[in-house]
Design goal:
The protein is α/β, with parallel strands linked by helices. Helices cover about 50% and strands about 15% of the residues. The protein is built from 11 helices and 9 strands.
Length: about 260
C-alpha cells in the first residue's frame, strides 16, 4: 500500500538516454490532479533541456493508465476562473509532450479516459495492452470533452473522434489501433517488450534527425499544403547538411554501416 510520501511521478533513465515517467496515483487511477499536472510540467521542462535524452516513455502504476482529471478536486471550489486555469494548465502539459525534441511513447494498460485518453493522443506513439480501453466520457456527466477533442481529432478521423465525444462510449485496444489512436496492441505480458522494441528502433537513429523531423511533422500539420512543402524542404536541406546525415548517405553509397559515434 502506498504511503502519503510516495511521489506522484516516478522517474528513471538508462544509459541510452531513455527516460521513463510513471504516474503514481494508482489508488486514484492516476487522475490528473493539479499536483500531478505540475509534476509532469516540471519533469517535461527538465527533459526539454536535457540534450542526452533520446526517448520518453510515459507509463502508469496500478490497474489504470489515467482516468482523466480529478473530479473531486474539480468540485471542491468551482468557479469560471479556476476551471479556466485548470484546463490551461492541462493544455500546457499536453503541448509540452509534443514540443519535446524526442519521441514520446505512451505505455497504456487498463483505462485511459477523458484527459487520460487525451494524454495518449498527445504522445507521439502509443503501445497498449490488449485489455486497455479508451473513452472521452465527460459527456456522460454533462461535460463535453472539449480539450481532449483537440488531440483526438488530430489522431482519428473526424467521424470516429466525434462519435467517441458525443457517445462517451469505450472503445477496445483493437478498435483504438484500427482508428489510429495507438500504434501497437499486445498481450499485457508483452507490453514492456513491445515498448522496448520501439525504443530500440528510435535510439538507433541520430537524435538530430528525429528532433528536426518531429518539429516539422507537427508544424506542417497545421499549415496549408504549399506552406507545408516549403517548411519540409527547408527542414530537409538543414538536416542534409548535418554531419550525421552526410555520414549516413555516404555509408549507404559505400555499402557500409554508418559511423555515428
Amino acid at each position: 500500500m502506498l504511503s502519503t510520501e510516495d511521489p506522484l511521478l516516478l522517474r528513471s533513465a538508462d544509459a541510452r538516454g531513455v527516460i521513463r515517467l510513471t504516474m503514481n496515483r494508482p489508488q486514484a487511477f492516476n487522475a490528473l490532479s493539479e499536483a500531478m499536472l505540475e509534476a509532469l510540467q516540471t519533469e517535461l521542462g527538465l527533459i526539454a533541456r536535457d540534450n542526452s535524452a533520446r526517448a520518453l516513455v510515459l507509463a502508469a502504476s496500478g490497474r489504470a493508465f489515467c482516468a482523466g482529471h480529478d473530479l473531486k478536486e474539480m468540485r471542491a471550489a468551482p468557479s469560471q476562473r479556476y476551471y479556466e486555469g485548470l484546463f490551461t494548465q492541462c493544455g500546457r502539459v499536453m503541448l509540452a509532450l509534443q514540443q519535446l525534441d524526442i519521441p514520446v511513447i505512451a505505455r497504456v494498460q487498463g483505462i485511459a479516459t477523458a484527459a487520460g485518453c487525451q494524454l495518449v493522443a498527445m504522445c507521439d506513439l502509443a503501445v497498449a495492452a490488449r485489455e486497455a480501453r479508451f473513452a472521452v466520457s465527460g459527456v456522460n456527466l454533462g461535460l463535453f470533452c472539449s480539450t481532449p477533442s483537440v488531440a483526438l481529432s488530430r489522431n482519428l478521423s473526424r467521424k470516429a473522434a466525434f462519435e467517441m465525444l458525443v457517445t462517451g462510449g469505450f472503445i477496445s485496444a483493437d478498435e483504438a489501433l484500427a482508428k489510429g489512436l495507438v500504434n501497437r496492441v499486445v498481450d499485457a505480458a508483452q507490453l514492456d517488450a513491445e515498448v522496448e522494441a520501439l525504443v530500440a528502433s528510435i535510439v538507433s537513429k541520430p537524435r538530430v534527425a528525429l528532433a528536426m523531423g518531429k518539429q516539422l511533422f507537427y508544424r506542417q500539420l497545421e499549415m496549408g499544403i504549399e506552406g507545408a512543402y516549403a517548411e519540409a524542404a527547408e527542414t530537409m536541406a538543414c538536416n542534409m547538411m548535418d554531419e550525421t546525415a552526410l555520414e549516413g548517405v555516404q555509408a549507404f553509397i559505400d555499402k557500409r554501416a554508418p559511423n555515428w559515434g
